[in-house]
Structures are given as structure tokens and as C-alpha cells.
Amino acid sequence: MVNVMDLVEEEFIYPGTRACAGCAMALIYRIALKALGPKTIITVPASCLTVLHGMQGFCTTKVSVLHTPFMTTAASASGIVASLEEKGLADEISVVAFAGDGGTTDIGIQSLSGAAERGTNFIYACYDNEAYMNTGVQRSGSTPLGAFSTTTPGGKKSHKKNMPKILEAHGIPYVATANGSYPLDIYEKFQKARKIKGTKYLHILSPCPPGWGFPPKDTIKIGRLAVQTGFWPMYEVINGKYFLSKDSQKYLDPSKRKPIEDYLKTQKRFDKITREEIKNYKQYIDDQWTEIRKRVENY
Ligand SMILES: Cc1ncc(C[n+]2csc(CCOP(=O)(O)OP(=O)(O)O)c2C)c(N)n1
Ligand code: SF4
Ligand SMILES: [Mg+2]
Questions:
Q1: Which of 119, 143, 163, 171 has the greatest number of beta carbons closer than 10 A?
Q2: Mutate which of 18, 20, 43, 47 to test ligand 1's pocket (most atoms within 8 Å of Cβ)?
Q3: What is the CATH architecture assignment of 10-297?
Q4: Cβ contact 106:140 at 8 Å
């Protein structure tokens, strides 16, 4: 496990971005770029991350960024990879697609699936703030059960889509989940992904103060609660082998998990959640960990 002294000092995001105060996505991106280094080309579809970069001529990052239409993030990354391969630069420069959950689980899934099936040599990172935040909080395939959005005013009626599992089914060499509240884990996972050839997929939970309805000072606490309640397990699947990440390991023991209510009650978006849905969450979490236990015991 890396420690804070291992992080490179150089910053690749200039201070004063247009992200909201307390935005986990900005923290995730800052740490990811430190792990990836200057020889990186990023592709980004429309999202809060586009806004973070700023208007043309005022880019907030030191690395090259290509803004792409929504559904073409992974396709544009594939084009960049093909061009670098042609120029003999593919081993030197990392190509990274960075997209929101709407751009990944819904709108960009077909080009991502195509790139993963071809084994395109790139990293695809989804920061998951669990809704279309940039356009005012519409539900996405990644919005969780019971959460308010402007298109689910009574709370969403189904669980979030399990994108890491979908990507795992493509047989790619690296799939990982992470969380904005564990920056060292994010750093390590991007460093690892950078060194693996083929398609790498990282799915990172990204608490969003205005969209989830909590004060900006609570971002880290809420991200941690997602892990501590067992809702958000952090793991890696490397060449098909499952590894539970250090900060999630103790939650294999159900008695160590905090009640899911501790997480839900911190956020206004769950104000209308029903008792039935909370019961459903408990089962969902238990089922998730039963599966994890089997996979961990297998290796
Ligand atoms: C083809 C297309 N449809 C819709 C939009 C409008 N749009 C811009 S950003 C955005 C939300 C993106 O949501 P997500 O990918 O989750 O990223 P977030 O804003 O949450 O960071 C939408 C719908 C667009 N730019 N292009
Ligand atoms: S709306 Fe949420 S994800 Fe978007 S910049 Fe603000 S805090 Fe970040
Ligand atoms: Mg989103």
C-alpha cells in the first residue's frame, strides 16, 4: 500500500477549478493524474468534468484533454491509441477515458463495450456521482434505489447497474472499484492499471454535495460510510482473480458493517426512502457480500 509520502508532489490540475466545493470528482481526478503522470492523453465526454476543465483557452489541467461527444468517449480513445501505435508511442503515453456515470452506464456503454471487446490498450475511469449532475440531477442507470432525482421525484425504484461486473464479463485484464474518500487506494489502482496492457476499467464512487444533498464538509465522511456500511465494496479483478482491497477487508465480517441507515440518512436524496426499500438494501448488501466471500475464498 502506498503512503502519502509516495504521492508525486507535482500537481496536474491548476488551483481554482469550476467544480463545486467538496466535489469528490475533483479530488479523484487530481489523484488519478498524479498517478498517471504528464505523458497522458485524456478523453472526456460532456459532464461535470468538462466543466472542471473550463472554457477553451483556460484548461485547468497540464495534460492534453480531448472533449468528445457523449457516446464516443471510448471510440475516441481507441482512435488516439491507434494513432499512438502507428507512431510507435503507445508504450510511452497512457490514454485515459474519464467519464461520469451517465456517460458510462447509459450513453457511452456501446463504444466502451466495443473497445473492451477489441482489447484496446487504454484505461476507462468512471467517476460515479450516481446521476446526471451537470444538467441538474436526472437519474442514470447508476442512480441507487430510493434516491431522489428530478426524473425520479419519488425515489428510484431499482438498484444501480453493476458496471464493473459488466466490464468483467468482457474478460479484460483489470477491473477495479474505488471511492473518492480513499485517495491512496485510487493512486495505487491507477498506477497499477497504467502498467497493464489491454483495457483497464476503474469505477469510482464520487460523492456530490449538491446532487446528494449534504454539506461540502461531509464529502469524505459520506464516501467512507458507503464503504463502512458494506454498500460500496472496493476490489480488483486482475486477469480474472478477485482481490478485496485493504480498506474493505474487515467488512467481510457482517458485524463490522455499520447499518445502511447511517449512510442513507446523511443525504437528502434519500428523504423519501421507504421501510421496504431499506429492507431491500439490507438484503442487497448481504447478497453482495455472500458473493464476495465466495470469490475471496476461491483464491
Ligand atoms: C448527446 C448528448 N446528450 C445530452 C447532453 C447533455 N448533457 C451534458 S452533461 C450531461 C450529464 C452527464 O452526466 P454524467 O455522465 O453522469 O456526468 P456528471 O454530469 O454527473 O458529472 C448531459 C445529459 C449532451 N451534452 N450530449
Ligand atoms: S455537481 Fe457534484 S459532481 Fe458536479 S462539480 Fe458539483 S459536486 Fe462535483
Ligand atoms: Mg453523474
A1: 143
A2: 47
A3: 3-Layer(aba) Sandwich (3.40)
A4: yes
